[in-house]
Design goal:
alpha/beta, six-stranded mixed sheet, about 30% helix, about 20% strand, globular
Length: about 350
């Protein structure tokens, strides 16, 4: 019984195990063009200390995205250690990256969701459309033995602690984001899954809904037409901000409206209307910046049923471009149901 009880205590500490763990993850500096740090392999006790030591010796430049990014490739491991690593990543303002061909499950997925822009301004989790991100709930592994009431209460307390820590991570605040750091819908999905179940970020809309940046979509997918792109932006932007399931395709009708503002004498915005009700669902403000010449969109949306609004387009006549609406990531221009590459079979 003594041997089984010691294994039981270990299991209540190592709450989330998804693979046979033989050694610690490889936590190190990286020469990767996308990230200065990397974690590869099973997450085990002590990996958080290793990461803290590696980061403490590095020079992080908030103006150089690579120096504040960490690449992830792991089948999971210790849930407790994963949460410790998540705290370090958030506190140091590191963004997380899953590259094409890389897989990140369970404890690794929780670490991925702790990614944040320098200065903790907004969530910054970067997923390749050729990468894999999978979640499931923390669970307890223990040998087949008889346990006392105190033993059972101990494991129950361990699970409560694990879930509480996950909720604390989800509740962290960023400076400009204005919403839950990790949305309640994602926490709900995570807690639904047992040790042999998982769910994956499979589509463009999944990524949009849970504030995950598909950073290389343009490299893999053909750009949609301008009209389709505008409709997709509105659909992805509005539904993801509402944190709701992907709705059936609405019939949208884009209308270009010209106006003069304090900053621009000859400007235009795009109003996307629901063709069945003529309600304006989204407002898009195209902006071109000198740095790259590309057209970027800032968006606002309003839900008439709940009176929820996203972005601040009421000030479009008096505010500078970067303060009008919320910035729209480029991948939102793709159809919400578009499958990521590894989920097409």
């Amino acid at each position: 019984m003594a041997k089984g009880y010691s294994q039981f205590l270990f299991a209540t500490t190592v709450l989330l195990v998804t693979s046979s763990i033989a050694c610690a993850a490889n936590v190190q500096n990286s020469n990767n063009k996308l990230c200065a740090f990397s974690i590869e392999g099973p997450i085990t006790k002590g990996d958080s200390n290793t990461l803290a030591a590696v980061i403490s010796k590095a020079r992080i430049d908030q103006y150089d995205e690579r120096t504040s990014s960490i690449c992830l490739k792991s089948n999971g491991g210790s849930y407790v250690e994963g949460l410790k690593i998540s705290e370090i990543i958030f506190d140091r303002g590191l963004s997380t990256v899953i590259e094409s061909g890389a897989e990140c499950y369970s404890a690794c997925a929780i670490i991925f969701m702790s990614g944040v822009a320098p200065g903790r301004e907004v969530p910054m989790r970067k997923l390749s459309v050729g990468g894999v991100l999978g979640f499931h709930a923390p669970y307890v592994t223990m040998p087949d033995e008889k346990y006392s009431k105190d033993d059972v209460e101990l494991v129950a307390q361990g699970m409560r602690t694990a879930i509480h820590s996950l909720v604390q991570l989800a509740s962290k605040q960023t400076r400009l984001h204005g919403g839950d750091f990790i949305k309640k819908s994602l926490i709900s999905r995570i807690l639904e899954k047992g040790p042999k179940e998982a769910f994956f970020v499979r589509t463009v809309y999944d990524a949009a809904r849970w504030d995950i940046l598909l950073y290389d979509a343009i490299q893999y997918w053909k750009k949609p037409s301008n009209v389709d792109a505008i409709k997709n932006i509105c659909s992805n932007f509005h539904s993801s901000n509402m944190d709701e399931e992907q709705a059936a395709k609405a019939t949208y009708s884009p209308v270009v409206e010209k106006y003069s503002s304090k900053f621009h004498k000859d400007d235009a915005r795009i109003l996307i209307k629901d063709a069945s009700t003529n309600d304006t669902v989204c407002e898009l403000y195209p902006r071109t910046f000198k740095s790259d010449g590309a057209v970027n969109f800032f968006a606002c949306s309003f839900d008439y049923w709940s009176s929820k609004s996203f972005g601040n387009c009421r000030e479009y006549l008096t505010a500078p471009a970067i303060l009008v609406g919320k910035f729209v990531p480029e991948f939102l221009a793709y159809d919400p149901s578009t499958l990521l590459l590894r989920h097409r079979n």
